[in-house]
Each structure stands twice: as structure tokens, then as C-alpha cells.
Design goal:
Layout: E1 5-7, H1 9-16, H2 23-32, E2 38-41, H3 42-52, H4 57-69, E3 73-76, H5 80-92, H6 100-112, E4 116-118, H7 122-126, E5 130-131
Parallel strand pairs: 1-2, 1-4, 2-3, 4-5
Helix pairs in contact: 1-2, 1-3, 3-4, 5-6
GO molecular function: RNA endonuclease activity
GO biological process, one term: rRNA catabolic process
Domain PIN: 5-129
């Protein structure tokens, strides 16, 4: 079985939007990691839904349904304990511009042992993770 890969919002947005600056790289990453199981949080799915609600609502709905229904994907749900851990990280790094959803991802990735992810956000690098390369 292939190693699971964590998915960030920015990767999905770049994959869907051909005008996004990272689109070509996202397509290459999608090809490379096509058969890998994927992991995201429901907070990431909320960001995807919000970001695509006006321009690509059907695509957003399909992406979220695929994440929720596919046997090859795992959605980690936001619990009160997970929120508290992410919020503590958010508060504890006032010198960073990390978003709260990114902090949720950081906590989940550390707990699940992820080092590499599908993303273009340098905040993950600041937090000690590695962005996947095509």
C-alpha cells in the first residue's frame, strides 16, 4: 500500500483553477500521487467549499463528496480537543501569520506522523513540514 499524503486547501484550489499560479505543478502532483490515500481535515474541506462557492460550486461539492465517500481518503474531524490544540498553537505563535485552519492541519499532521504534504503554502515549511514536489 502506498503511503498516505496530507492535502491542503491551496493544493486543491490550484488543481481546480487553471488560472492559479500553481496549477501546472498541482496537476503534476496529482498525477504523481494519484494512487496514494489522501488525508484532509473537515476544516480544509470547509475552506475549499468557501473558496469555490461562487466560481466553481459544483466542482467544490464534488471534491468534498469525493473526500467524504472515497475509500482512499480520510477526513479527520474537528473535535473540541483538536480545536483547543490548534488554537493553542495559533495563540502561541503570534509572530507568524498562520491561519487557524493551518494550525489544525499542523496538529493533525504531527499526530499522524506526516512530514510531507500536497500544498504550496510556506506556512507549512515554517512549521517544519516539507512540500511535496512533482
Amino acid at each position: 500500500m502506498l503511503e498516505p499524503v496530507f492535502v491542503d486547501t491551496g493544493y486543491v484550489l490550484a488543481l481546480v483553477n487553471e488560472h492559479e499560479q500553481h496549477h501546472a505543478q498541482a496537476v503534476l502532483l496529482a498525477q504523481r500521487y494519484d494512487r496514494h490515500p489522501v488525508v484532509a481535515t473537515d476544516a480544509v474541506l470547509l475552506e475549499i467549499g468557501n473558496a469555490l462557492s461562487r466560481l466553481a460550486r459544483p466542482a467544490a461539492a464534488q471534491i468534498m463528496a469525493d473526500f467524504r465517500e472515497s475509500v482512499g481518503s480520510t477526513v479527520v474531524h474537528l473535535t473540541p480537543e483538536l480545536f483547543d490544540a490548534a488554537f493553542a498553537r495559533y495563540q502561541g505563535h503570534a509572530d507568524k501569520t498562520w491561519g487557524l485552519v493551518d494550525c489544525v492541519s499542523f496538529v493533525v499532521m504531527r499526530r499522524m506522523g506526516f512530514r510531507t504534504l500536497l500544498a504550496f503554502d510556506q506556512h507549512f515549511v515554517q512549521a517544519g513540514f516539507v512540500l511535496a514536489r512533482p
